[in-house]
Amino acid sequence: MLMILKKLNQSWVFDLVGVLLVMIAAYTSGYLFDSLGSTIRFSGVSWAKYIPFGIISVVSSSLSILSTRLTARLNKFGNIIGTINTVISGAIDFILGNSGAVLTYPVSFLINAASVKGWQHYGEGRVNRALDFKKWLPVMIGGAVILSLGLNYLAFRNTSPLFWLASAVFTLSLIPNMLNIFKIEDQWFFWIFYNIVQLAKAITQGNFANIGKYIYYIVNSGVAYPIWRLAREQAKS
Q1: How far is Cα 204 from Cα 198, in angstroms, rounded to an integer?
Q2: Which of 47, 129, 130, 175 has the least C-beta neighbours within 10 A?
Q3: Is the CB of residue 189 less than 8 Å from the CB of residue 225?
Q4: Rounded CA separation 160/153 (Å)
């Protein structure tokens, strides 16, 4: 079983499946051909109809898949691509109605950038456990919750359902992204919960490119964890 997961983790065919899943979901729903003018924030703006917002969203989702797949392979370029794509995905999320994106995504950008530096420190082969940082783990989780609630409240100025959803999503992304700075294998457990919440959010927003992407991510997270654990065990032996 572990050998199958290892082959799947290294498979570029599996990467292609993720991209195709996003494209098919966006195409069949008609979202692929949506313009910027069809969004809430740019409804009625004359020039917005010429901006292929659906295609841009699909490209961003595809970059996100590539970033995640490279990270699952313990390839440092996954963090680099992810850091760059944070800017694009943040803009998309804001346009689709998440007012908190102007505050939360810059934080995500900085954390992703820190992961690039962190992976350089730990090198190619080393993988850590959450237990190796047990003194700091409660601080990271508590800090993520407080930071998420604070930033989203500043953005929304209310406690609407969208505020709570955005706060939950951002908290669940902050925790594994922080763990990723230190190459901690347990981040994949948090990514599973994060992807489930993001899937619900994508359905609510009607962002069909992301619906396929997050279904794919749930599977990928389940594959990545045993591979990281094996890499850690092999590095110790």
Answers
A1: 10
A2: 47
A3: yes
A4: 10
3-state secondary structure at position 184: strand
pLDDT in tens, the chain (237 residues): 778 888 989 999 999 999 998 888 888 888 888 999 988 788 878 888 889 999 999 999 899 999 999 999 999 999 999 999 999 999 998 888 777 788 889 999 999 999 999 999 888 778 999 888 888 889 999 999 999 999 889 888 888 887 887 788 889 889 999 999 999 999 999 999 888 888 887 787 777 767 777 888 999 999 999 999 988 888 776
| Residue from 228, 224, 138, 220 nearest 184 by CA | 228
Start-to-end CA span in the chain (Å): 21
Three-state DSSP class for residue 76: coil
How far apart are the C-alpha atoms of 116 and 125, rounded to whole Å? 15
DSSP state at residue 136: T
Report the residue count for the chain. 237
As given in the structure block, the two tokens for residue 185 are: 């294998």
Contact 130, 144 (CB under 8 A): no
Token pair listed for 167: 């706060």
Cβ neighbours, 10 Å, residue 157: 10
What residues contact 10, with CB distance under 8 A and at least 6 apart? 73
